[in-house]
């Protein structure tokens, strides 16, 4: 993963953690014992803030997923390139099969002048 992408992922993960903490705080205020002592206007405001924070959290997670998909696509492309190279190497060895076997035979029998 490129450094700039890694930095963005770290930033988004930290943002997600902050948002998650805020969700917990708001939920605790709305559901906890003090939640019964708040006015309906304050409850509505807290619910509105909770919805806003959840929207931000959703956006953050969506961006994290997009970055993960990009990373996976890059890795898949890298693997496809490696596969193609190996396939070409394999095909070349198959074409040179008799030459490779003859050279190995000479090496084993000490007939190869290039051998040390």
Mean of pLDDT:
92
How many strand elements? Answer: 0
C-alpha end-to-end distance: 44 Å
The structure class reads mainly alpha
Q: What percentage of residues falls in helices of 4 or more residues?
A: over 70%
In terms of DSSP E residues, the strand content is under 5%
Shape: rod-shaped
Please compute the radius of gyration using only Cα atoms: 31 Å
Strand count, sense and closure of the main sheet? none
Low-confidence stretches: none
Count of runs of 4 or more consecutive helical residues: 3
Query: Could you give the order of the helices and strands?
Result: HHH
When the domains are counted, the total is: 1
Structure summary:
It contains three helices and no strands. With 116 residues, the chain is mainly alpha-helical.
